[in-house]
Amino acid sequence: MPSEITLEIVEQSLDIIHDKDPQRKDEFFLDLAAVNLLNAAAKKKEFKEIAKYKDIKRHVTYLFSLWVADHTLADEASYDIANKCLYIRCYTLQFSFHFIYDKYQPIVEFIHSDENKPTTWDGIKLQPIAVEILNIAVEKIKNPRGDINIKIEEIKQREIK
After folding, report:
1. Where are the alpha helices (DSSP H) in 19-160?
2. How far apart are CA 2 and CA 12, in angstroms?
3. Is 51 helix (H, G, I), strand (E, B) or coil?
4. Tens place of pLDDT for every residue, the chain, 161 residues?
5. Residue 46 lies in a domain
6. 2 inside domain
7. How far is 126 from 130, CA to CA, in rounded Å?
8. Which of 10, 101, 93, 104 minimizes the C-alpha distance to 59?
9. 35/95 Cα distance (integer angstroms)
10. CA 21, CA 27: separation in Å to the nearest integer?
11. What global pTM score does this model have?
């Protein structure tokens, strides 16, 4: 059963996205996990004032711009123009975010380039397992050489069922 989102974990996620810029894939994954959790928290009445969509969208846009400049930060990314949806895959998890700010020039150039390959959604909702994903991302930072793939596959399978 997914863990509950608490004020403490929302504040932790805000601290993560306001900390230093991600320089490595594990740090980028941590930021994605934090933004995913904030996106889930924003849907809950008790967190609407601190997990604001505009701040979430701004940070996702920023992360996407970092990936456009350095593709080693995640496995792949693409932007579905018709559905206004960004997909970023990192450590086999496909994060999706709708309605990012897509007017920043490097993002515009990527979106309209051959590099922006169409993709389909994996069908795994990450917001219900946001706390678990954040915990895995924190663990990866603490132990960069550790293998998180088994834990990721476990939570993906649980969410598919």
Report:
1. 25-41, 53-69, 105-111, 130-142, 149-160
2. 18
3. coil
4. 568 999 999 999 999 999 999 999 999 999 999 999 999 999 999 999 999 999 999 999 999 999 999 999 999 999 999 999 999 999 999 999 998 877 878 899 999 999 999 899 999 999 999 999 999 999 999 998 888 989 999 888 877 65
5. yes
6. no
7. 6
8. 101
9. 10
10. 8
11. 0.94
| Structural domain that includes position 27 | 7-160
For residues 15 and 7, give the distance between their C-alpha atoms in angstroms, rounded to a whole number: 12
In a domain, 1, yes or no: no
Residue 118, token pair as written in the block = 């169409």
Instruction: Indicate the helix (H) or strand (E) that contains 52.
Output: none
CB neighbours (10 Å) of residue 28? 23
What tokens were used for 64?
């996407």
- How many other C-beta atoms lie within 10 A of the C-beta of residue 72? 9
- Total count of domains within the chain: 1
**Domain annotation covers residue 41:** yes
Chain position carrying tokens 């990721």: 152
Taking Cα atoms as reference points, which of 157, 161, 142 lies closest to residue 29? 142
